[in-house]
Amino acid sequence: MCLMPGLRSILITVKQRWRLLMVYKTLLILDPYFVLKRLLLPKEAPPTPHLQASCITGSTNNPHSDQQQHSHNSHRLDSHHLSNTKATRSPTHTMPPVPSPPALPRIITYYQTHHSHDGKSISALPLITQPGIRLTHLILAAIHINGDPHAITLNDHPPSHPRFHTLWAEMRILQASGVRVLGMLGGAAKGTFAVDRLGSDDDAVFERYYAPLRDLVRARALDGLDLDVEEEMGLGAAVRLVDRLRADFGREFIITFAPVAAALLDSRNNLSGFDYEALEVMRGREIAWYNCQFYCGWGDCSNPIMYEMLLMKGWAPEKVVVGLVTNPDNGGGFIPFDILGSVIPLMVGQHARFGGVMGWEYFNSLPGGRDRPWEWAQWMTRILRGDRAMAPEVIMPVGKVDTPPPVGGTPAEGGDEIADPDDDGKGKEAPVPAAFEYYSDGFVDD
């Protein structure tokens, strides 16, 4: 039986409020003071490490505050910086500027698998041509720095390889359409941030490996870099890399990190080797946001509790992007859409500056899978933006999801256990995410 729109809206609201009550009940057990403070003073935001650092240094200038929107020739600016001022246009312009996506929340997808088994390109253009999608950022993966400083690879091939000609052309089209394109540096493949490369204490060694990376970013006009440090790296080396990127590319260049979500709660639950809270205190003004991996045992998004704990810790909601696997084949911790459809609106409803959602990764994203991977971004747009009249109806999988065989072999390993350093070794250790096997490497001889 169909319900009247008004009654249906009331029932949805009651359901969301009931879920929120259950979350607060759990948090009340963990930290009664936080719950009372949030209920009595709902508009008061928790202090962030960045704000604390600003008070210590006496500085109020923040290069990531809202800035003037730039033209297409100067588009390296995170979309959440564009909310307060209008763009300046030359009177000679005859075409209206491409409208930028709304400021927050961000909708981000990682794009690492670029080709099918037969070598055919997997196009990213449907992310801008299909209706009802407001993608804000695409992160192109994965850039690797190898033993030879000049042998940088995008996955397993040089970025200039003919297999990437279509890809680079599409990236320019995405940028012209208002989507910011970042490169992902590092990832599960070790070496990029090693002590004999970008993580070196020797400035000369660092420069030898950094210079080709800088040249690549310039040549491809990337809007930013996502630093996915999944190996030991010193805090000083991370700060130095951030400083060099900012000095070389200016204040509009987007710098992000991709920690596992648990690392923002406890530095011992970490793949990067350095304390992210310390990094935020030292260089938070230079870091646009953190793409937090809530999967592979390092986080849980089946309810908002862990996300709320991050905010209790002091992280600003606009700097925490909730990272999800878009398909069970891409890693452990996949959350069915019927659950996400309740959890994400709770996060957005409680935090006006909700940072957004990112998906790992594009090529096989559900619900459309390999045939229609853009439907994940379409669904997220409807959930986050509330534009339910924009997109055509998409039938979402509910509960257990049956998927086709994974790409290139067995699914990526990784369970759903949460690492807990305080359990005296009685619990299970969180699995380190396995290296992901992608179409674009190893299947076609070029």
From TrEMBL:
Subcellular compartments: Secreted
Limits of the GH18 domain: 105-387
Uppermost EC category: hydrolase
Biased composition (Acidic residues): 414-423
Secreted listed as a keyword: yes
Name of this chain's protein: chitinase
Taxonomic placement: Eukaryota, Fungi, Dikarya, Ascomycota, Pezizomycotina
Keywords noted in UniProt: Carbohydrate metabolism, Chitin degradation, Glycosidase, Hydrolase, Polysaccharide degradation, Secreted
Record region (Disordered): 51-99, 398-432
GO biological process: chitin catabolic process; polysaccharide catabolic process
Bias (Low complexity) ranges: 61-71
Listed EC numbers: 3.2.1.14
Recorded GO MF terms: endochitinase activity
Catalysis: reaction(s): Random endo-hydrolysis of N-acetyl-beta-D-glucosaminide (1->4)-beta-linkages in chitin and chitodextrins
A GO cellular component annotation in the UniProt record: extracellular region
Organism the protein comes from: Diaporthe helianthi
